[in-house]
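A student in our group prepared the protein record below, which I am reviewing. I have pasted the whole thing underneath without changing anything:
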Amino acid sequence: MDSSLLTENGESYSKALGNRQVQMIAIGGAIGVGLFLGAGGKLHQVGPSLVLSYAICGVAAYFVMRALGELVLHEPSSGSFVTYARKFIGPWAGFVSGWMYWVNWAMTGIAEITAVAIYVHKWLPDVPQWITALVALGVLLAVNLLSVKLFGELEFWFSVVKVLAIVVFLVTALGLVFTSADIGGTPAGVHNLTDHSGFFPAGVGIALMTLQAVIFAYSAIEVVGIAAGETKNPRQVLPKAINGVVWRIGVFYVGSVLMLAMLLPWPFYNGDESPFVTVFSRLGIPGIGDVMNAVVLTAALSSVNSGLYSTGRILRSLAEKGEAPSFVSRMSSRHVPYGGILFTSVAYLLGVVLNYLVPKDAFDIAIAIASLGVITTWATLVFCQLRLRQAALRGELERPSYRMPWAPYSAWATLAFLVLVVVLMGFSDGAEKIAFYSIPVLAVVLAVGWRFVVKRREPAAQRK
């Protein structure tokens, strides 16, 4: 076998991702449609207090990434947290976390494809949104099936566009705020944080309800961990990539929402348009709104691209243990797990159908259910880090030098925060409540699925 391949737990992936691509995949994973589209609706719902929600969730994301970094440096694997869950918790945990991650990306894909249709609709209002969504899915599916290198290159340039756009926005926004510029008839400035019914116009309780949507906005930061199995020199590349994600979260997410809240009074934003497009369109500069619309379209395409990539690897990891249909374990001659990618694309097709039937409802419900997958993934990573640390204290293994800070207290605090977010979903009146009540359904389906896997393994074990 070619030395460029990684063979680990039955895996055979091409190590085609270099430092440049992994760095940008890490950054791009932290900038998605949750910020570019979702922030508009949430600003309209809770006002400037959304900044606080992004800051709090950013702290949790920081600890999750550091936990991921310690696990990856201990054992780089394209199975990522599924591999770690099996090793540090038990086989059932790998099954549950893997399928919940798939649920996350299946629902995220529905939301992202809907976002693509919304953005393109601005330019082509006469073209049905479901057609736009279908074309986008077809192109990205082809990219993922061709090669890992092509995926990495496309994601690199997607991420470059997103990062440049955020940087340009932040610099422009700072200038507009400092000069109290007139934006479509209203002056920009710090006063917008408090002038319109205060910092918490909807109340502290409603502001807390946004935590679920903000966690969804941070989803995909863990893709860099999945890319570990196809990365050259992962122990050198990944700590830099993870550290980069951590500080960029603060600048890009918290900074962007803070600037949005200061540029315009919060009632001017809505969920039908990217808040970035809202700001630039009101500046009155010809074409600038269209440019920003193209950027946020890129962000949505990037997320679908990452979803196909990551779920293909996770599903293959599950199938190798008999925990997913055998079809999803199939690899192409280009070392691409095409079975898993095609399996996920079928769920994305459902998104096209829902986009045709109930686009707005589908988006809200999809991101709420997707956030359950994000929370499961984050909790799994943090708990596995706790188990890794305990095993190291018993002398069973050696912890890598790149470690989660302030462990174990930071880990337990992060887990408590994630539980709080789930509990708060039950008090919502919107799509979050639907997601909350879907938890027992998901639990039953996963329990039945795991029981089926165990029963199927029993005859094989007896034959041995």
About this structure: Residues 359-393 form the longest helix (35 residues).
